Amino acid sequence: DAKTTQPNSMESNEEEPVHLPCNHSTISGTDYIHWYRQLPSQGPEYVIHGLTSNVNNRMASLAIAEDRKSSTLILHRATLRDAAVYYCILRGFKTGANNLFFGTGTRLTVIP
Amino acid sequence: NAGVTQTPKFQVLKTGQSMTLQCAQDMNHEYMSWYRQDPGMGLRLIHYSVGAGITDQGEVPNGYNVSRSTTEDFPLRLLSAAPSQTSVYFCASSYSKGLRDYGYTFGSGTRLTVV
Lengths: 112, 115
Fold this sequence. Notes:
- The complex is a heterodimer.
- Helix content of chain A is 0%, strand content 45%.
- Chain A is mainly β.
- Chain A has a five-stranded mixed β-sheet, with no helix packed on it. In chain A, strands 2-7-6-5 form a four-stranded antiparallel β-sheet, with no helix packed on it.
- In chain A, strand 6 and strand 7 (70-75) form a beta hairpin.
- Chain A starts with 8 loop residues before the first strand and ends with a strand.
- Helices cover 0% and strands 50% of the residues of chain B.
- Chain B is an all-beta fold.
- Chain B starts with a strand and ends with a strand.
- Chain B is globular.
């Protein structure tokens, strides 16, 4: 499975936008880019995913580079509740299975 | 909808004991998976299932068994618990339709300590 590279940690001030980067230079044409976050003492939570085009939902935006070798998760206004570990994951499709393989993610600290 | 329900939330076992971690989902999801998360680490895939009656191994399957007799349930069995299996266990499920991708829903976890 193709790997992703994320910074170990980032900080943001409350109510400011946050851009979380992810590099995935070995991505294949059928790999979806998934983002999950894990709040302290909770299970991972789905944030957003995309294939080629930028995506928006109520939680965040996902900006995908034209060559798909990198992507950025955008939180438009960070709140204290957004402090979590954010995982960027490539989910490839194989016949009968399409598992998620987690790395160590980016720990986001939100400063009041 | 309850989503993905895991029981128990906490468990302490003695070395050599066996137990079953329960996972149930009410979203009619085909895919279900079990992960473990050790302190300060990301999640590692133990076993997964692409539908009732079909299971397969993930990254770290040793010491664990699974079965999938119904779409809703995907129990994880520890046959003979070892201290190395002390971890937080997460169950997850996902819908699948053709090649369209959907997100996973995770349970809240079972914190297992083996002494």
